[in-house]
Amino acid sequence: MLAAWFRIKYPHLVTGALAASAPVRQFEVECDIFNRILTSVYKNAYNENCSSNIARIWDTMKQMLGQEKTKQEFNSKFKFCTPINTTQDLETFFDYLNDVLGNLAMVNYPYESNFLAPLPAYPVRQFCSELKEELNGTQLINAFHRALTIYSNSTGKTSCLDIASAYDSSMGDLGWNFQSCTEMVWSNCQNGTTDMFPPRAWDFRKYSDDCFKKFGVKPKNYSMNALGEIRYGGGRLNGVTNIIFSNGLLDPWSGGGVFTSQQGIVIVVIPEGAHHLDLRASHKDDPESVVEARKLYEKLFKKWTSKSHRTYHFKK
Q1: What value does the mean pLDDT take over residues 84-99?
Q2: What confidence score (pLDDT) does residue 182 get?
Q3: Domain ranges within the chain, ordered by starting residue
Q4: In angstroms, rounded to a whole number, what is the distance separating the alpha carbons of residues 274 and 251?
Q5: Where is the signal peptide (predicted)?
Q6: Which of 137, 161, 209, 229 could pair covalently with 225 via S-S, beta carbons 3.0-4.6 A apart?
Q7: Is the Cβ–Cβ distance between 12 and 242 less than 8 Å?
Q8: pLDDT class for 30, splitting at 50, 70, 90?
Q9: What is the C-alpha separation between 13 and 16, in angstroms, rounded?
């Protein structure tokens, strides 16, 4: 996003830009688009039972927490650093799981990676391999726990499950969390019908109150569209040139991406691409679509820079 906006705002300084996995239209799309695409990624990673099992896990966990015996079994199974005892505790765990499921899809690379957490190749497929059968009750809990360890404890060295953050401790997420309370205020909702999550409407007031509790700031309602729309035109890119917008179809952020080509704008669609896979270093297991995309980038970069540095000689 920053690459595209930098080119738009400072065309005299920036010759061209590659905006990879850039959801510049996220301000204007439906609030459930991220979760719809995310669900599709899990539905197609192994078989449809994966997303169906995930859709059932939320109520199954609520039922286990509702009885003392099963609550103890639940805590024992997941080995939380801080036990889950209340409904609010469970909501915190649900938020953690939402982040984990989103992160797995974003880094669903065809090789091992260590970006958000140490992960195997195609981690969503690995996750879904534990949920390939139609499951309920204790069987579902056990299988989901095994799947979760692919993200939370792939090294086998984690002693307990810390649900305070779904990000590697060396990375941290405070910077993004603050920015999402000030500049990048994107509506997010889920309905349990077109996605695999329990229904939750977008509530700007609650979002604003949460931001104030965390950082002492309250986003203005208009800021949801101000940055993208007023400053940079949102999805309207009239007159913009020399920008490549690439989107991987395995990336849930692609719902806010640019897919409509126009003069001066190049659109690249990578069917097997997760979040900014094309920006990562080349790897022997890269899909052909990524290899070809990088070749195109190099060709366009050379074309743009050769034009911008042309020397003119005038006769006396």
Answers
A1: 93
A2: 85
A3: 2-24+232-308, 35-167
A4: 5
A5: none
A6: 229
A7: no
A8: very high
A9: 9
